[in-house]
Design a protein that fits this description.
Low-confidence stretches: 53-57, 73-78, 86-141, 341-345, 347-365
Distance between the termini: 83 Å
Helix content: 25-40%
Number of strands: 15
Largest sheet: 7 strands, antiparallel
Strand order of the largest sheet: 8-7-6-5-9-4-10
Structural class: alpha+beta
Strand content: 15-25%
């Protein structure tokens, strides 16, 4: 029997003598390679800036050959410029000149990062960065001109991330007295006057109290085990959470009655100009109520987004007059375009109903009934012309559902009718699912009946970013929670004084509220000066910004940069 047929035989098995022979052959080959690499001629061709290593005399007494220590290679940690400078100081310049290619090669540019996430992923969000690394397919918007202020952003933010070259240690570990004083300042609506620049922010008690004051917001209802913002698309986060009201109708009625009282209190504060604005967040849409004099309007306004054809029809049946600003703007553009071609339209009208457009419309109307003619029953069956025309008109309205173009605007006395409609509307509360029976969320910058005081979460992170000369410290401050417009502006005022007039900010928007920046035109064409809103609880500079008309349109701020006390931003 051959050895291959024996049980347990392994073809790869080698005898101990064979293993020793292979080991000796491998050691001889490695010795030859080392001798070729570390020849005596290499000592004269040392790489500039690399420290040589001498192992000392050999055992046989011969002179040792200097070789490179692989653990002492400094090529990856110093630049060519520094290497040339160090060589110039140590020896003659003629013998240490760099190659021509290395001299012509430009030094790498300093990369600036806006957040700790950008450091991890290697993305630079600096608006002044070069566009070489950007994809040619995506056009890069040009940054706006520097300004001492930036436009108001009425969208809700879920997260703010500030980065700066100076530390944010003044935001950490507030003392009990500083925290209490900050809460009292918020409740009394007492603004803190800070100098334009604070040399030592950590030792400034007023700054730390103002920081605590800026983080406060008011919320109703409040259930600690549920995240009540955002409400749109929050079903997955609420699955499995305890909701005792979902199957108890009596408990649902109690919750809705308390919610109606809180909603009424907020609207009364808005009418009295003691509350500048507030949000109503349901599971399918969000409403922004603004007082008279805010956003360039002399009457109370309400903006709702997104909407559906059903909710719009229900509002019409209740007698609520509203407009669709984005759709109206598109119609105005089309009207101006049609006026520029009015002469051509007159000629086509004289030609009669034989134009291509009318023929296309006629073909579309009869397209759905062409099969009747093919069957030969066209004369026996009456065409539902009225129904088809009605469906055709409603087709464009249905296309707007759940889209940014579906945002609607309510002004003046119609906001009170909308207020009553929301209180009595059953569709604002989910009938099934994780949010079943849960009243909408009310967010306000000031206190109101039934509200609970909450504070945003602040967290500081210190990272190191790579630059040309090595690494530098990069400090970041993260704010999470329902960040309202006044909070974002107050924080920028504080950071402007504490960080030496320089920082970067990344703003993460709750997308359904982006269209709240749609411009609202005043009835008399005059903007309010904000004198009647002096007691609304906002900082004077914040109030001055909010009284101006919105200029962002259907976009929102994504990145904000302060450099030398001047702002630049991207949408």
């Amino acid at each position: 029997m051959s050895s291959e047929m024996l049980p347990g035989y392994s073809p790869s098995f080698k005898k101990p003598s064979e293993i020793l022979r292979l080991s000796r052959r491998r050691s001889r080959s490695e010795a030859g390679v080392k001798a070729a690499l570390f020849s005596p001629g290499d000592a004269a061709r040392r790489i500039p800036g690399v420290r040589p290593f001498s192992p000392g005399p050999q055992r046989n007494g011969s002179v040792a050959i200097k070789r490179r220590n692989p653990f002492a290679n400094l090529e990856n940690t110093i630049t060519a410029k520094k290497r040339a400078e160090s060589v110039t100081e140590c020896g003659p310049r003629e013998s240490w000149e760099l190659p021509a290619k290395e001299q012509e090669k430009p030094a790498p540019e300093t990369v600036q990062y806006n957040s700790a996430e950008d450091v991890i992923w290697g993305e630079s969000l600096d608006p002044t960065a070069t566009t070489k690394t950007q994809s040619p397919e995506k056009p890069i918007p040009e940054p706006c001109k520097a300004s001492v202020t930036y436009p108001a952003d009425w969208s809700l933010k879920t997260r703010l991330l500030f980065t700066s070259s100076q530390p944010f240690t003044w935001t950490d570990h507030l003392k009990a007295q500083e925290e209490a004083q900050g809460l009292v300042l918020h409740c009394r609506a007492s603004p803190v006057r800070l100098p334009p620049s604070i040399p030592e922010p950590k030792s400034s008690t007023d700054l730390r109290c103002a920081f605590q004051q800026a983080l406060v917001y008011w919320l109703h209802p409040t259930y600690p085990w549920l995240q009540l913002f955002p409400r749109i698309g929050a079903d997955r986060k609420m699955i499995g959470k305890n909701s005792p009201w979902s199957q108890d109708e009596a408990l649902q009625q109690v919750l809705m009655s308390e919610w109606a009282l809180s909603f009424t209190s907020l609207y009364n504060l808005l009418k009295a100009k003691l509350c500048p604005y507030f949000y109503v967040c349901t599971y399918q849409f969000t409403v922004l109520f603004r007082a008279a004099g805010i956003a360039g309007s002399d009457v109370i306004t309400a903006v709702m987004s997104p909407t559906t054809r059903g909710i719009r029809e229900a509002m019409k049946n209740e007698g609520i007059d509203f407009t669709l600003p984005l759709v109206t703007n598109d119609l105005n553009k089309k009207t101006k375009a049609s006026e520029s071609t009015s002469e051509l339209d007159d000629k086509t009208q004289e030609a009669g109903p034989t134009s291509e457009e009318e023929a296309a419309l006629d073909s579309d109307e009869d397209e759905s009934f062409s099969w009747l003619e093919e069957m030969g029953v066209d004369d026996q069956i009456k065409k539902p012309d009225a129904i088809s025309i009605k469906f055709r008109k409603e087709k464009n309205e249905v296309k707007l559902d759940h889209r940014p173009e579906s945002v609607l605007l309510v002004k003046g006395a119609n906001t009170f009718t909308l207020f009553n409609f929301l209180i009595n509307c059953k569709s604002i509360v989910a009938a099934a699912g994780p949010q079943a029976g849960l009243p909408p969320t009310l967010l306000s910058p000031v206190a109101f009946r039934g509200a609970t005081m909450h504070t945003l979460k602040a967290r500081t992170v210190n990272v190191k970013t790579r630059v040309q000369s090595g690494y530098k410290d990069q400090f970041s401050l993260e704010i999470t929670g329902p960040v309202m417009p006044h909070t974002a502006h107050s924080l920028t005022l504080l950071l402007k004084a504490a960080q030496g007039g320089s920082f970067l900010a990344s703003l993460y928007t709750h997308e359904p509220t982006t269209v709240f920046n749609t411009a609202i035109h005043s009835q008399n064409g005059k903007e309010s000066d904000g004198a009647e809103l002096a007691n609304c609880g906002l900082h004077p500079l914040t109030l001055e910004q909010f009284t101006q008309s919105s200029t962002l349109g259907n976009s929102s701020l994504r990145h904000l940069e302060l450099n030398d006390y001047k702002y630049t931003w991207k949408c």
